[in-house]
Design a protein that fits this description.
Elements: E1 3-8, H1 15-25, E2 28-33, H2 37-42, H3 56-66, E3 73-76, H4 82-92, H5 99-106, H6 108-117, E4 125-128, H7 131-137, E5 145-149, E6 158-161, H8 164-181, H9 185-188, E7 190-194, E8 199-208, E9 211-220, E10 233-236, H10 242-259, E11 264-273, E12 276-283, H11 296-299, H12 303-311, E13 324-330, E14 336-342, H13 344-348, E15 353-358, E16 365-366, E17 377-383, H14 386-399, E18 401-405
Parallel strand pairs: 1-2, 1-3
Antiparallel strand pairs: 4-7, 5-6, 5-7, 8-9, 8-11, 10-13, 11-12, 13-17, 14-16, 14-18, 15-17
Helix pairs in contact: 1-12, 3-4, 4-5
Length: 413
């Protein structure tokens, strides 16, 4: 029986889907999680149950010391764990992307330098280390600009600023977010770059021996103009002209080659405007959250099963167009305690809606972007056209009424 070491963040939406895919394939899973080390030691957990994913050298040593048998492959379920997975593969002599390549694509500043050096369309950008740097720049920049944390994913720690005052405020806010989320946040500094107008798109792909296969190109029909850039709807197939879709795929493939990525999943984000394609991100991971479920219609299996097959060098399916599909990441509208949702059954019964998954439990603290890194849940739709899928997602979302308690009572003891 083949085995795979899976890096499973305890907060990931996808753990169950990966475990179900492994069970279907008859693959033994060596599960490594990132539980709090202090809690783990007090509860008798092993090093495999409390690996610090954000300290890859330390975590790799502890994991290797506790492995009873070497796996056939190592795979990180989320971006949190990519560098650790690469280091483990290197230490175990398994094929995979180089540690340096993974690290480069996890760092927004390093990736911007790569794009600039090789002639990609790239916004003007600056690396700012502290507030003094921002104050020195504030009156000299052309606005709007976007302030970004260097190693956080999605819209977490991304804030638009339209003037010098907003820039200073955004810098302080993003610095605080990065310091809480990244062990090295205080030393990393931030990226300040020109805002790129245009529509945003996402490419989901798979690299095999350096060749990119496109699994899907997603439209993001909601404008993402700030100030916080929280993603909502993905719809595939894209409604972009074929020539532009080809250009996007070619640029993503070229960026992968230059970064040194050669195998495994690729998730790329880009903007398109009258000037052409602007790559925002190319990551050696698959699409996050439960969004991968939207690809079942084209893959004939779950995305997680496809990724396990690829990692274990098993046969892969042909990607086939089967109508259109879409997913909405239900945004968190405000900070507060989640109480529940109304009209869920009615929304699930709408035409073209295939599933609605609420991802939070009653009593959970909700944080909207840019501090938050989660969603209320996911709405899925399938239809004959992208337009119909998008309309179904919007209709279902309009029906849902979320109850969020914004004033938290304080009880004296």
């Amino acid at each position: 029986m083949k085995s795979i070491l899976l890096l499973l963040p305890v907060s990931s939406y996808r753990n169950e889907d990966f475990l179900a895919a492994a069970d279907k394939l008859g693959v033994q899973v060596i599960a490594v999680t990132d539980n709090c080390p202090q809690l783990a030691s007090s509860r008798g957990m092993s090093a495999l149950q409390a690996a610090p994913f954000d300290q890859p050298v330390h975590a790799a040593q502890a994991i290797l010391e506790h492995l009873r048998a070497e796996p056939d492959a190592v795979l990180a379920v989320e971006d949190h764990g990519l560098e650790l997975a690469a280091l483990l593969r290197e230490r175990l002599g398994l094929p995979g992307n180089a540690v340096a390549a993974v690290g480069l694509t996890c760092d927004k500043l390093a990736f911007r330098h790569l794009l600039q050096a090789h002639g990609f369309r790239c916004p003007d950008f600056r690396h700012v280390e502290d507030e003094a740097d921002v104050l020195a720049l504030a009156q000299r920049l052309a606005y709007p600009v976007v302030v970004k944390a260097r190693r956080l994913s999605s819209s977490r720690g991304v804030v638009r600023a339209d003037n010098a005052g907003e820039l200073i405020s955004a810098m302080r806010r993003v610095s605080a977010i990065q310091a809480r989320a990244d062990r090295e946040g205080q030393e990393l500094g931030l990226v300040v770059e020109a805002f790129i107008p245009g529509r945003e798109y996402a490419l989901e792909g798979l690299l095999t021996a350096g060749e990119l296969s496109v699994l899907a190109l997603f439209d993001k029909p909601d404008p993402l103009d700030g100030p916080y850039f929280e993603e909502t709807i993905y719809v595939t197939p894209s409604r972009l002209p074929e020539a532009m879709q080809t250009q996007i795929a070619e640029q993503v493939a070229r960026a992968c080659r230059l970064a040194g990525l050669s195998t495994g999943p690729v998730h790329a984000e880009m903007r398109v405007n009258d000037q052409g394609v602007w790559l925002l991100e190319v990551a050696s991971r698959s699409i996050g959250g439960l969004c991968g479920r939207v690809l079942r219609h084209a893959l004939g299996m779950s995305l997680e099963e496809l990724l396990l097959r690829h990692a274990l060098n098993e046969p892969l399916p042909e990607v086939a167009a089967r109508g259109a599909a879409g997913v909405m990441m239900i945004p968190i509208p405000k900070r507060g305690l989640y109480q529940g949702v109304h009209h869920l059954d009615a929304a699930r019964a709408l035409p073209h809606i295939t599933d609605i998954q609420i991802a939070v439990e009653a009593g959970a603290l909700l944080l909207p972007a840019p501090e938050g890194a989660s969603y209320l849940g996911f709405i899925f739709a399938e239809a004959d056209t992208p337009q119909a899928a998008e309309q179904a997602l919007r209709a279902a979302h309009r029906l849902l009424a979320f109850e969020i308690q914004t004033e938290v009572p304080v009880v004296a003891v």
